Amino acid sequence: QKEVEQDPGPLSVPEGAIVSLNCTYSNSAFQYFMWYRQYSRKGPELLMYTYSSGNKEDGRFTAQVDKSSKYISLFIRDSQPSDSATYLCASPGGGFKTIFGAGTRLFVKA
Amino acid sequence: DVKVTQSSRYLVKRTGEKVFLECVQDMDHENMFWYRQDPGLGLRLIYFSYDVKMKEKGDIPEGYSVSREKKERFSLILESASTNQTSMYLCASSPTQEPSYEQYFGPGTRLTVT
User: Fold this and answer.
1) How many Cβ atoms sit within 10 Å of the Cβ of residue A74?
2) pLDDT digits over A72-88, tens only?
3) By CA distance, what is B89's nearest residue in A?
4) What is the mean pLDDT of residues A56-77?
5) A3 touches chain B (CB under 8 A)
6) Residue A21: how many CA atoms within 13 Å on its side-chain side?
7) 8-state DSSP, A9
8) Contact with chain B for residue A44, Cβ under 8 A
9) Contact assignment for A97 to B90 by CB distance below 8 Å
10) What is the DSSP string of A29-47?
11) What is the nearest CA distance from A78 to chain B, expressed in angstroms?
């Protein structure tokens, strides 16, 4: 079992829709969770991170962690075509390593 | 502006060739990483380095080696390229302070081995 699992999609939504991207993790010791966004032909970049349980909001993006069910979510409100990218969830894996999910491809249609 | 650069965006090599992929960061980060990214498999760590001349194996080091002679430069070497090493290679760096939330990635090198 992978430590961080993510549905690869693709997920296709119309512009303006609310998008929900999800991950599950297996290691209950994970304390920090991150979402990276990767545009086509680019490297991933950190979108936002959150610590432990609860929500964190940044503009149209909300990251949510449910430690009881080991579930991580990223919500995108009022989705835009510019949000079309691959979204990777991640968690520090000990030392200086990071465990990444496989990524979910999102397409937002104008 | 934070910057990680990789020597090539696209590379085509023949089976058996020795391949060098270079990565340079300008953020004075201690940690540097090499990943490969394949569809459905996500990012897999090949090697990482937490200091000059220091290196540790990641999850898939077989067929690869690395070199870090200077803090800002981390090289990935494919000793004898094989077709199953065709992939996107991503370099990243991060600062040392725990927990190191953020890794900064380069644009990637798409390597094709024929």
Assistant:
1) 23
2) 999 999 999 999 999 99
3) A43
4) 93
5) no
6) 34
7) -
8) yes
9) no
10) T--EEEEEEE-TTS--EEE
11) 26
CB neighbourhood size of B72 (10 A):
16
Residue B69 contacts residue B77 (beta carbons within 8 Å): no
- Alpha-carbon distances of B1 from A62, B6, B71, B76, B106, rounded to whole Å: 26, 16, 18, 24, 13
pLDDT in tens, B70-110: 999 999 999 999 999 999 999 999 887 655 568 899 999 99
Query: With contact defined as beta carbons under 8 Å apart, do B44 and B88 qualify?
Result: no
Q: What is the pLDDT of residue B100?
A: 57
Q: What b/e sequence results for B48-58 when a residue is b if at least 16 CB atoms lie within 10 Å of its CB, and e otherwise?
A: bbbeeeebeeb
Report chain A residues whose CB lies below 8 A from the CB of B50: 95-96
Q: Kindly report the nearest CA distance between residue B86 and chain A, in angstroms.
A: 16
The mean pLDDT value of chain B amounts to 92
A49 interfacial to chain B (CB closer than 8 Å): yes
* Nearest-by-Cβ selection for A96 from B39, B100, B104: B100
